[in-house]
């Protein structure tokens, strides 16, 4: 159990991020103010009466914590105001700077650009620029390049179906509120020598140096591990590292930053002029750390690691030898102050969760066994650290990626020592590789180390059951898992102190109850039409049962995640046939699906039809359709042409016919009344 009085910055970080989350959930500031005044009034009453709590200092700090929570709330709102969201198309003609390159398609480059033009309405705003490959070369579209673009800014497309990846939300949390399709692009030859441009030039030079001695997957791993250039990784290399459970080695994090720091301290310690852990040697090492973090892209994990290692370095000069939770809280506050949206990024969540696991859980696991020899002690510490980080990040990893690496502890035993050696050899090669005779030697050492890493990870990939796939858990289960983990830690602490264990026991029971909560609540009866472009898909859900009607052979991944989230345990699959009337709920509700091969419906009025699905640009007259099924909701899914849907929408609006298309709000959901 954490003694909060020893870690005030961690406590402040929790309340600061709670304010950001409350703002994201659209909680009213007036409601927060009323709650805050009520808590402060209660605090004053407690202090002036005979009732006295065990931790009065914590109660007295409530006004300060509420102020920090409000600060997080306002920082999120201010960040939202800086993101320009569009509802309609707007012309754009401005000078921009490329900040980040995205995944390119067959015909287009995608790049996040910052408008640097005072004459534009989008000045100092971020846009997602879609540039045709015929307009510019790949060598010209790079981070730090200046462009003149002209086109039309349109709203970003949102998530098409429930629990599907929401691209609009993803870009919004990166500060991008609109997308521009560029009609004309001009590359400005005079590039601004910003920090981004200088960093890219340095990285290009160093990547070129690595490519002279490495090739193929060896170059990909060295580029990602040494310089943070993960865009060089092929899908096969990512898959190998993911199955072994060592993808964190390729992301610049505390491991890399710590290696750089201790290499700097150790190298300077060889000279008598620099005493080990002296102020001057620490400053030089921290400059190396921040230079490395900027060079590798200053990701959230590297930024967090650089801040924490800076606090650690200052602490060593002042006599503090341990990295505490205060440094973690300070790093979280600084990162979120600069960008309140960072808390919603997976890198932020995994980075801080892993560090908290190492700081909180690792001491407990390390105390279970005390090795006698130095090598066994090193191996045991490595195992406990990797296990601690994996335990605390496992729920959120399974929720997002639906897989679990079975032999992650073996992968970490192989990857972490070799990553240290590869990073050390890579730094040595990039620093001293110009010396005659050393280039070939250091290049050969670097190549051999990477091949050893490949051999070890390939061996793990060949072990049976090296990966558990198709794991789907709900967000309620994720919350319950973290509550259960906290209850176990609390239970252990209370047992060690000999205190009353009833509170911890109740916490564990409540956590297990929350785990089963989604299965105890039956969702309403509804029919959902999904926004798939190639195949029509429909799901009828009644309680914990669901029937999926689809043309495709396999269900989309988001469909499985949706059923887990909504507590559906019994699922059946049927082939969707057009021109057929499907009946649900003992025949009380029915749906008619029509495609391009279906003819006009008859004039017979059938009031049991609640939904009519139009697919594949079917030649249907909306007015006659309404006469046949007057109480039906007409729905057009994503298989229709947008021009055809516009015609249907115009005709339905003119005749006041209920019409909806799945491309507007994602999947369309029709809720049946229980009394029908």
Commentary on this structure:
The protein has 676 residues and is of the alpha/beta class. It has 24 helices and 17 strands. A five-stranded mixed β-barrel has the order 1-2-3-5-4. It has a five-stranded mixed sheet with strand order 11-10-9-8-17, with no helix packed on it. Strands 12-13-14-15-16 form a five-stranded mixed sheet. Helix 1 (8-24) runs parallel beside helix 12 and helix 9 (254-269) packs parallel to helix 11 (300-317). The longest helix has 28 residues, at 374-401. Residues 50-55 have low confidence and may be disordered.
Give a brief outline of the structure.
This protein has 676 residues and is an alpha/beta fold. It contains 24 helices and 17 strands.
What's the alpha carbon Rg, rounded to whole Å?
Answer: 29 Å
Could you give the distance between the termini?
Answer: 53 Å
**Largest sheet descriptor:** 5 strands, mixed, barrel
Task: Give the tally of β-strands.
Answer: 17
Low-pLDDT sequence parts: 50-55
Structural class: alpha/beta
Please work out how many helical segments DSSP would assign.
Answer: 24
* Molecular shape: globular
Mean pLDDT: 79
How are strands sequenced across the largest beta sheet? 1-2-3-5-4
Helix content: 40-55%
Strand content: 15-25%
